[in-house]
């Protein structure tokens, strides 16, 4: 041991040893900080993507029900919206939406289906009573299309029975 201390190389060996230790600590701490920052940003990005997806799903359901209530002449858009909604909705909400869109007697109202969709999207974290959802009356053109639609349904029913 005495040889090492008295050696002319001892300051150089100490310097190199400290440099190795410093480099190792710096590298380990740098990689730790990088991974920590990446983790935080990836969690934030995932949270933002989830919020965006929820908004898109909510918009799709609202657009589907709005289009459906306006009795459109062209059904391509409403058909596409319906298919998209049925792809991501859970079966309980999809079943209620199906009853509503097909006019079943035991169907829920548009407001109740919106609340079901909202509960699914928000994971039941923010309850909203259906009566607080505002629904506007049909315009004149929509009322005329509704009457035409009802007439077509009556004719179809009579044709299938007769």
Spell out the blueprint of helices and strands.
Blueprint: H1 2-6, H2 10-69, H3 76-88, H4 91-102, H5 110-121, H6 140-161
Helix pairs in contact: 2-3, 2-5, 4-5
List keywords for this structure.
162 residues, 6 helices
* Class by alpha and beta content: mainly alpha
Number of helices: 6
> What about the largest sheet?
none
Please state roughly what percent of the residues sit in beta strands, choosing from under 5%, 5-15%, 15-25%, 25-35%, 35-45% or over 45%. Answer: under 5%
Helix content: over 70%
Label the overall shape.
Answer: rod-shaped
Topology as H/E string? Answer: HHHHHH
How many domains in all?
Answer: 1
Distance between the termini: 112 Å
What's the total count of β strands? 0
**Which parts are unreliable, with pLDDT below 50 for 5 consecutive residues or more?**
none
Mean pLDDT equals 86
Whole-number radius of gyration? Answer: 32 Å
């Amino acid at each position: 041991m005495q040889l090492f201390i008295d050696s002319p190389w001892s300051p150089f060996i100490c310097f190199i040893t400290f440099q190795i230790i410093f480099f190792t600590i710096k590298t380990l701490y740098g990689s730790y900080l990088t991974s920590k920052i990446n983790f935080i940003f990836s969690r934030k990005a995932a949270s933002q993507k989830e919020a965006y997806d929820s908004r898109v799903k909510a918009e799709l359901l609202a657009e589907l029900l709005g289009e459906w209530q306006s009795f459109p002449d062209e059904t391509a858009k409403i058909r596409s919206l319906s298919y998209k909604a049925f792809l991501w909705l859970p079966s309980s909400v999809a079943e209620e939406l199906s009853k509503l869109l097909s006019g079943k007697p035991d169907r829920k109202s548009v407001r109740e289906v919106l609340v079901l969709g909202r509960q699914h999207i928000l994971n039941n974290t923010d309850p909203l009573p259906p009566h607080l959802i505002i629904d506007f009356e049909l315009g004149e053109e929509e009322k005329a299309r509704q009457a035409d639609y009802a007439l077509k349904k009556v004719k179809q029913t009579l044709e299938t029975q007769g």
